[in-house]
Design brief:
heterodimer; A: 112 residues; six-stranded mixed beta sheet; four-stranded antiparallel beta sheet; 12 strands; globular; B: 115 residues; mainly beta
Chain lengths: 112, 115
């Protein structure tokens, strides 16, 4: 079956540091890949997505590239801010979006 | 416009009682999903509805769990004879369709505590 493995947290960084959160997946077919973010006290919301190999999703300074050869979708940001503190979830949908598979989430804390 | 809403936001119940959780999806979204999120864990798929098709119930953990949806609007997740292991945040999401590229829009969740 499908699975998503995320870098374990929590991750603590200083403001302006470089961020990488690793995500690898196992899936049949041709999945779409997503990063969702959950800010404190808020619901999950889409951060970015990529729907085919070599696509790059980007939003709010975050980027992730769909790498089929390494089955990865790592999240990166060049300079994090305190406001980026949140829980980040990597997810995939494969053929049937109703069966989207989520990683366990990575908690990021950015200190001033 | 309005996002996905869920009620109640918090529910505390005694073991053995039945509970109903409600989800109002975004208007016009034909697909609706329920997930369970236990503390410190990822989202666990429970069930999803697509239009008037039969729902995919393959993620429901036991026959104590059931869900209904009225047309393409409100959905209710019912848990009968609640157990302590049912304690979790129950998340609802909707999307325009259930296509593989469609983004899911999540509600704020219902935190269920079974004493």
């Amino acid at each position: 079956g499908n699975s998503v493995t995320q870098m374990e947290g929590p991750v603590t960084l200083s403001e302006e540091a470089f961020l990488t959160i690793n995500c690898t997946y196992t899936a049949t077919g041709y999945p779409s890949l997503f990063w969702y973010v959950q800010y404190p006290g808020e619901g999950l919301q889409l951060l970015l997505k990529a729907t085919k190999a070599d696509d790059k999703g980007s939003n709010k300074g975050f980027e992730a590239t769909y790498r089929k050869e390494t089955t990865s979708f790592h999240l990166e940001k060049g300079s994090v801010q305190v406001s980026d503190s949140a829980v980040y979830f990597c997810a995939l949908s494969d053929t049937n979006a109703g069966k989207s598979t989520f990683g366990d989430g990575t908690t990021l804390t950015v200190k001033p | 416009g309005a996002g996905v809403s869920q009620s109640p936001s918090n529910k505390v119940t005694e073991k053995g009682k039945d509970v109903e959780l409600r989800c109002d999806p975004i208007s016009g979204h034909t697909a609706l999903y329920w997930y369970r999120q236990r503390l410190g864990q990822g989202l666990e798929f429970l069930i999803y509805f697509q239009g008037n098709s039969a729902p995919d119930k393959s993620g429901l953990p036991s026959d104590r769990f059931s869900a209904e949806r009225t047309g393409e609007s409100v959905s209710t997740l019912t848990i009968q004879r609640t157990q302590q292991e049912d304690s979790a945040v129950y998340l609802c999401a909707s999307s325009i369709t259930s296509g593989v590229t469609d983004t899911q829009y999540f509600g704020p969740g219902t935190r269920l505590t079974v004493l």
